[in-house]
Amino acid sequence: MRTQRQVVDYSLQKRAVLREVYAGRVGTYEVCDASPYLKNAARFHGEPTEVRCPICRRENLTHVHYIYGDELKQSAGQARTLAELPVLAMTVREFQVYVVEVCRACDWNHLVEQYLLGRDGVTGDQGDSQMDEAVAATGSRAPVARRRREARR
What is the chain's mean pLDDT, rounded? Predict the structure, then answer.
């Protein structure tokens, strides 16, 4: 299975920003600044959550997943649904995913996490068990190794 690698969680940074807002040192106009593109991405590609907005508390937050990577070419920087990510992870060697939470009511937005996905994320144990099954079925390692090398290209 494809796994998330190099996960960076931004929850501590979010708590620090919210602490500043609640203390009155930072105004809501400074943190509620979602661009129209981000709001549209939240509407059409976002995944609704059960978490209320920490600023307005009127609406639940929406998570938007942005993808970046050299192999993505024109698709880099696009918002994708959560369901599209496993399909991309099987076809692309490696790409970054940035998850942004957005409140469509007050324009609050903050980076939630960032992680790496792609074919390179196949766990070693899974690859070895697939190799053992292929050897048992064919009696030879060479064709499987050649196919594995061709798949990596």
Answer: 82
In sequence order, what are the residues at sequence separation of 6 or more whose Cβ sits closer than 8 angstroms to the Cβ of residue 59? 52, 53, 103, 104, 105, 106
Are the CB atoms for 59 and 133 separated by under 8 Å? no
Nearest residue to 2 (alpha-carbon basis) of 90, 69, 82: 90
Domain map of the chain by residue range? 5-121, 123-153
Q: Which residue has the tokens 């993505």?
A: 72
- For the chain, the C-alpha Rg in angstroms (whole number) is 20
Strand partners, 45: none
Exposed, middle or buried by CB within 10 Å (0-12, 13-18, 19+), for 32?
middle
pLDDT tier for residue 127 given thresholds of 50, 70 and 90: very low
